[in-house]
């Protein structure tokens, strides 16, 4: 073949390949993020959606250069471990576990795939990281440690006659154990006692809150995935027994708790997604400090509070970020 013919053939090949070159390049740059949560409820769902939105803002668009996989453990720790092993086997670019049980399961399943956890109350107590500033290994994330002191102050403001706070929690959730300890410390400072009721599984939530009737003047629900997944059954008892129910999760207020000071979990997800984007762009998770959730909102539900036998003070309603149930 002459040199001239060779050039013509090369030009023809380039013209043929040209239309396909961009998709091939895009495919090579495509990333996969695997997301898992211990259970489905509004706060954790909002966190997941926030992660995806932040990734989009960072240039990782689902269906274009990003594939997002999602699985819920439906409240079962054994299922959480199974999902974690499955994700580790499929080797995504980043795994994002939402909640402490899912984060612990994922951390146990892989030592090399980047992990960015979120909605983990106390990563140190959960043994997720070596330190908050230098988490080390393949992991970092975001802590949503609840403002428990503000919760106790809010309960006292709304139920000034309260002497005993009941608390519903799953002792198998390390995040809840940490928050119950914090609650006891803050309650003691305020001259209040704490009455515990164990909720090992969601079906135990209603009998547990019934056990607090007559023993507690108000009930507090920490960031406990087991209890929150069965929240409506708890609220029903609160209405029947005229027992005010408070929560650490602002999303629970729209479902019937009287009031809460907490985070907007869509924004928590967006904070987390910004970290995930940094990892996808090449930063090592172990070098990134664990972030703290930013911004707290006051949500109140005057209608449900009244059904529980309390009237929200006007000052509380006026300063609320959001009033629901009207």
UniProtKB/TrEMBL annotation:
One Pfam entry name: ABC_sub_bind
Do you know which SUPFAM superfamilies this protein is assigned to?
Periplasmic binding protein-like I (SSF53822)
Give the signal peptide range: 1-21
Q: Which domain of life is it from?
A: Bacteria
Keyword annotations for this protein, in alphabetical order, are:
Signal
InterPro entries in the cross-refs = ABC_transpt-TYRBP-like (IPR007487), Peripla_BP_I (IPR028082)
PANTHER family from the xrefs?
ABC TRANSPORTER, SUBSTRATE-BINDING LIPOPROTEIN, ABC TRANSPORTER, SUBSTRATE-BINDING LIPOPROTEIN-RELATED
Q: What is this protein called?
A: ABC transporter substrate-binding component
Q: Which organism is it from?
A: Azospirillum lipoferum (strain 4B)
Q: What is the lineage of its organism?
A: Bacteria, Pseudomonadati, Pseudomonadota, Alphaproteobacteria, Rhodospirillales
